Amino acid sequence: MQKMWEGRFKEASSKLLEDFNASISFDKALYKEDINGSIAHATMLCECGILTNDEKDKICNGLNQILDEIKNNKFEFKIEDEDIHMAVEKRLSEIIGKEIGGKLHTARSRNDQVALDFRMFVLNENKEISNLLLKLIKTLNEIAKKNLNTLMPGFTHLQHAQPVSLAFHLLAYANMFKRDFERFQNSFERNNFLPLGACALAGTPHPTNRNITARLLNFTAPTQNAMDSVSDRDFALEILFNISVVFMHTSRLCEELILWSSQEFKFIEISDKFATGSSIMPQKKNPDVAELIRGKTGRVYGNLISLLTTMKSLPLAYNKDMQEDKEGVFDSVKTATSSLIILNEMLKTALFKNENMEKACQMGHLSATDLADYLVSKKNIPFREAHFITGKCVALAESKGIDLSQISLKELQSVNEIFDEEALKVLDLHNSKEARKSFGGTANKSVLAQIEFIDEFLKINEI
Ligand code: ARG
């Protein structure tokens, strides 16, 4: 079989080389980007007088036919064609003849072609994942709206710390995913530049106009330096990093969903639609989806480290090592997309067990800090001493087997006479949550402002 580059070769390729060298088995996923990029390139060549109108039309019609063939599973992907770029170009010449088909690759190289196709793929996926993040943020905000008064323990060191609302807790995640969304936006803006036209590494003597191609493909502008354009894979690393941060966040959320659905917590029940059973233990209902998302964080991090390592120390410009850039990205975007879709649905259908959350607040002396704060603000006691006195009250409650929020005034006064009626009010768990009116705090007023902030953000981003 004839190779496009065989002019200087005397011997045919080994079958081993063909199998080892080819990327078509996976880069065929870039067929749409490849064909659209070629149509824009041919259009630009025509506008610059490098192709005639008739040649451009024949090329574009041929490319559209190939698009249909691939979409309808009528295109045969062959390992000998090496990659999607050469497979499409070869088929084009079969359809419209070599005379004209052979002109498409004028002022272009596979190096800038692959940089273009892969970049367009990454930018499209960026939009896709960004939209899924918006949907997830919306779900969290909607659940928050319904749970302003759902009291639950806030934790540090996984020990009961202070009372919060479920709304407040979920809004923490909404803010993380908002930053993730913004990270994707920033990456899009930074990377939305056209590498095509850089050719092999040094540009071209043909009278091309890269601004035309950039406009046709909706890029902000062409990239500045041809050598950078074909050497750079930052755009791919960025999506791998951005997805990794999303998974760092989703893995924390999923970890909590797993804990919360355990018998020890009983804070939520995951819908039957998104839980699984055991093959031996009839009573089991397992949070497999949350566990899988948590587990997939490993492969997503792996893909990032893998490409960082591949790119490390590569001399400029293109090196074949860079063909290794694609599979990890394909895997990470697929993993992110499917995980975000199912996580959103799982959250929407989960049952939050408000009573159990509130009951859990009656363990662990969650309002102890409030008692110390009361001694400081109402009794003018230095915080360190207030901390000590409150510690004594906690020890008393512990010895009586009750929570500090259930202690009587008499008992408090047995520790220190300074306590009065107001101490009982500050120990009330709802009051404790409401007392934290500071900007970003747990009081409903603060939380409502946080909800509104997210609503505003979602409105600006049209969801
Ligand atoms: N299949 C190659 C890749 O994915 C396309 C670029 C090949 N360029 C070259 N000079 N061999 O990286």
Automatic annotation (TrEMBL):
The keyword Lyase applies. This is Argininosuccinate lyase. GO terms for biological process: L-arginine biosynthetic process via ornithine. Its EC number is 4.3.2.1. GO terms for cellular component: cytosol. Residues 7-302 form the Fumarate lyase N-terminal domain. Its main location: cytoplasm. It is an enzyme of class 4 (lyase). The gene is argH. InterPro entries: Arg_succ_lyase_C, Argininosuccinate_lyase, Fumarase/histidase_N, Fumarate_lyase_CS, Fumarate_lyase_fam, Fumarate_lyase_N, L-Aspartase-like. Keywords: Amino-acid biosynthesis, Arginine biosynthesis, Cytoplasm, Lyase. It is found in: Cytoplasm. GO terms for molecular function: argininosuccinate lyase activity. CDD domains: Argininosuccinate_lyase. It catalyses: 2-(N(omega)-L-arginino)succinate = fumarate + L-arginine. Residues 366-432 form the Argininosuccinate lyase C-terminal domain. Pathway: Amino-acid biosynthesis; L-arginine biosynthesis; L-arginine from L-ornithine and carbamoyl phosphate: step 3/3. The keyword Cytoplasm applies. Belongs to the lyase 1 family. Argininosuccinate lyase subfamily. Pfam families: ASL_C2, Lyase_1.
